[in-house]
């Protein structure tokens, strides 16, 4: 089932009219137990249009539903959006018993505005919704897509690799600058903001996260590729690469390197490492931002390098 944005909101009002005709409205709490599908998504969110709260049941539709239209929907105004529950969820229970959580109407709208600031979704973007829509993450994700005009592809949770490849083939990769579909072995953005490419046999390869790509001399540079080259040098224990603003280059690749033997730090070793990268890459991938020796790389609790901290460190560090 495919719905345009306009059709989606029309269906919400139509379903809501049906629920209202059955006496569901402000103050009611409805238990919802559905899997992922466009139809179930419409049913789920149409309940919130009536003013009722949902406790994360397949809607029972009869022949009278066909006689309902969106004009039968009576708009509900929430006088206290902060104090009125929109939905109740249960936590995953990973640290103990699952706990109930209330989400207010105000919280949902605040989340939409926050997401618009943090993530630049726009019409033409395609988002893959694989979270269960009865989880907080899945429930909050759908309105984000709808409010920004992005297309949302709803799939069942527990996506297999074969299913993932199917959706990749169906929705393709797009060129980062033009938005056009790309051919084999050309870098493109997968719709959840990773840089990928596929070969002639349809095999998919990960290149880098979109936000970690560096645009140097009008060319896309993978930070992961340069990090791998640096880490292959016998003197290097760890390395990370970020883009730093340089008028001549746009974003110049700059390396942060942890040495196996810290006392071996020297301008000569820095030059050797830069040449190590330059000898194995195209000109636009060279370390024009220089190389900084550090004792360790800043990482979060998941072990991922916090690259925005590296950019701040670069401003006050000595780069060779």
Write the layout of secondary structure elements.
Layout: H1 5-21, E1 29-31, H2 38-49, E2 53-55, E3 85-90, E4 100-104, H3 105-118, E5 126-129, H4 136-148, E6 151-154, H5 161-171, E7 188-190, E8 194-198, E9 204-209, E10 214-216, E11 219-221, H6 223-231, E12 236-246, E13 250-259, H7 267-278, E14 291-293, H8 307-315
Parallel strand pairs: 1-2, 2-3, 5-6, 13-14
Antiparallel strand pairs: 3-4, 7-8, 8-9, 10-11, 12-13
Helix pairs in contact: 1-2, 3-4
Description:
The protein is of the alpha/beta class. It has three domains: 5-118, 3-Layer(aba) Sandwich (Rossmann fold), CATH 3.40.50.980; 160-212, Luciferase, Domain 3 (Luciferase, domain 3, Roll), CATH 2.30.38; 214-315, 2-Layer Sandwich (GMP Synthetase, Chain A, domain 3), CATH 3.30.300.30. Helices cover 30% and strands 22% of the residues. The protein is built from eight helices and 14 strands. A four-stranded mixed sheet has the order 1-2-3-4. Strands 7-8-9 form a three-stranded antiparallel sheet, covered by helices on one side. Strands 12-13-14 form a three-stranded mixed sheet, with helices on both faces. Strand 12 (236-246) and strand 13 (250-259) form a beta hairpin. Helix 1 (5-21) crosses helix 2 (38-49). The longest helix is centred in the N-terminal third of the chain and has 17 residues, at 5-21. It is elongated. The relative contact order is 0.07. The model is unreliable at 57-68 (pLDDT under 50). GO terms for molecular function: CoA-ligase activity. Its main location: other. Residues 225-304 form the AMP-binding enzyme C-terminal domain. InterPro entries: AMP-bd_C (IPR025110), AMP-bd_C_sf (IPR045851), AMP-binding_CS (IPR020845), AMP-dep_synth/lig_dom (IPR000873), ANL_N_sf (IPR042099).
